[in-house]
Amino acid sequence: MTWGLQNRVSRLMKDGRTVMLAVDHGYFQGPTTGLENPRRTVTPLLPYADSLMLTRGVLRTSVDPSQPLPIVLRVSGGTSVLKELSDEVVTTSMEEAIRLNASAVAVSIFVGSEHEKETLANLSETVNAGERYGMPVLAVTAVGREMARDARYLGLACRIAAELGASIVKTYYCEGFRKVVEGCPVPVIIAGGKKVPERDALQLAASAVKDGAVGVDMGRNVFQSSNPVGMIRAVRAVVHEGKGPDAAMQIFEKAPTPKLVR
Ligand code: R5P
Q: How distant, in Å, are the alpha carbons of 16, 116, 211, 254 from that of 74?
């Protein structure tokens, strides 16, 4: 690993753990609930995240360039919810990622889907480009609509991502998650998935960390919460302080209710 790549990875995980705030959903979902106005959603959450995962469009239009948070730039896409999701291309060049001062780039792979091979090629080509500049690649193990999110399938996807050179892998929590982590020789983080009650999302994060994840890349369970700042603070307590879901839930419940920002 080059010094630059190592340095970028360590920006994302200062204590070896990370709370990545995912707000890239619009790249295929359009104006996702809670993210209709990205600036309004993201700004109050910035002080509590370790990094921000998003596309260049939302970064340029909705995030103040003077804010210090490391950026994880999504560079694969080109599909929409109306079409086959696995039919992605690389949308953003490595030079653009460097111009935007990204600390990592993110590419989705769809193992088991129609365009599996192309998405694995997207990852490999991005790793090759990243190696030239010391840019780590986060592989997002996306799940085809009909795929079971079980340890066998997710373990397969995570391992392939690591073998192709990803520096970090994002996947979903599942039964037998420890095996997924053990089979993946690079750090693993989990997505939050669809919005669930806050305590369930905190339980998910706590279980994932207990089973070896280095943190979360969480979106909807933060920004669709009734109190997004309270929720990200509770998630931080789980990831960085090892709090259990009950203790974290107290942090959520005691957090001041959000002011309506226009
Ligand atoms: C896919 O839409 C994205 O890569 C999301 O960033 C990822 O799924 C994490 O977001 P969530 O916690 O909402 O699942």
A: 22, 18, 26, 34
